[in-house]
Design brief:
- This protein has about 300 residues and is an alpha/beta fold.
- It has helices spanning about 15-25, 65-75, 100-110, 130-155, 165-175, 175-185, 200-205, 230, 255-260, 280-295; strands at about 1-5, 30-35, 50-55, 80-90, 110-120, 185-190, 210, 215-220, 240.
- Helix content is about 35%, strand content about 15%.
- The strands form three sheets. A five-stranded parallel sheet has the order 2-1-3-4-5, sandwiched between helices.
- The chain is globular.
- The structure holds flavin mononucleotide and iron/sulfur cluster (2 copies).
């Protein structure tokens, strides 16, 4: 098969999953191309692919606007097989509604959605996950990738269901994008911390960061609120407007965490309470399917 993995990423979690998927597909003798959607991405010719994977982080229980807009302009092809690999920081069911608009695009174009999975990844907003929590997440993600590939290879159709209430809430919260437009004007550089390395400017996916007349780093209005700039800034010099209290600064170094034997891959307990309680169901779902297909 010739496969395309088409994705958007803010802080590189989706990129991490895309690389894993690519390697796994290639191990099964498929040819895999990857394409990252950015603000100025060229259109891509879909006609030579047998299967197209659509990957994205969930934002406010929605598909990121930049990714949806790209797919809409691209015009998906009829009779082509698609699968979705979406991911986010928490596992609650409201996230199920996030692909509703992409599913409509696929339906409208008479494409075929063969599979959909929701991966969990560490939060890039709100608060930083501890390393052993991240390692446990990555362990289950790898199992879920094997599950998704198995289902695709064996024509096991699986699509995540949403409902009217989740869809309604997700639709209301899709205004997050207007929030991003307002919030961008509160983005600010802490001049005492910034060393003008321009890392943020080079990496912003929408080319929204520039040097102003005073020679200082500044922000335009075209912000996706993807958190990449503040996440990767080596000096924690970017204030992310009204969300400053939720800032997570510094990459997770996922490969280093995964391969470091000093870090335990055990975090969630059987009687888990609080925020991480919803992980129990997700891990159960993955473990049960894994046992069914592979043990
Ligand atoms: C603006 C914004 C909104 C988010 N909304 C959600 C959400 O609704 N549900 C969720 O589980 N995680 C949410 N997250 C967390 C991200 O989905 C998560 O950290 C993801 O792994 C980031 O992927 P990326 O590194 O590919 O950008 C949000 C993050 C951002 C920046
Ligand atoms: S990445 Fe941080 S330190 Fe470098 S230019 Fe941007 S704000 Fe300044
Ligand atoms: S300005 Fe920062 S948060 Fe906004 S799109 Fe660019 S990298 Fe993402």
């Amino acid at each position: 098969m010739k496969i395309l993995l088409l994705y958007f990423t803010g802080t590189y979690n989706t990129k991490y999953l895309t690389t894993l998927l690519k390697n796994k597909f290639e191990n099964n003798l498929n040819v895999v191309d990857i394409f990252e959607v950015k603000g100025e991405s060229e259109s891509i010719d879909l006609s030579s692919y047998d299967l197209i994977g659509l990957g994205y982080p969930i934002y406010a229980f929605n598909t990121p606007k930049i990714f949806y807009k790209y797919l809409k302009n691209l015009k998906l092809l009829a009779n082509t097989h698609y699968f979705i690999y979406k991911q986010s920081g928490e596992t609650i069911k409201l996230n199920n509604a996030s692909s509703r608009k992409i599913k409509k695009l696929i339906n409208k174009s008479k494409g075929i959605l063969v599979n959909e999975q929701h991966y969990v990844m560490p939060y890039n907003i709100h608060f930083r996950y501890e390393d052993n929590c991240v390692k446990e997440i990555l362990k289950y993600d790898e199992m879920l990738i094997n599950i998704q590939l198995y289902e695709i290879r064996h024509n096991i159709h699986y699509v995540i269901k949403s409902n009217t209430i989740y869809n309604f809430i997700s639709r209301v919260l899709s205004i997050y994008h207007f929030g991003a437009k307002i919030n961008h004007s509160f983005y600010k550089i802490y001049m005492d911390k910034c060393n003008n390395c321009k890392k943020c400017l080079k990496e912003c996916p929408t080319k929204n960061i520039y040097v102003n007349k005073k020679g200082q780093i500044d922000f335009g209005p075209n912000c996706e609120m993807c958190m990449r700039c503040s996440f990767i800034c080596p000096n924690n010099a970017i204030k992310i407007g009204m969300l400053e209290g939720w800032k997570v600064n510094g990459p997770y170094n996922l490969n280093e965490i995964k391969n470091n034997p000093q870090i335990s891959d055990s975090f969630i307990t059987p009687n888990q309470k609080g925020f991480f309680k919803c992980y129990l169901k997700t891990y159960d779902y993955i473990q049960n399917k894994y046992n069914k297909y592979f043990l």
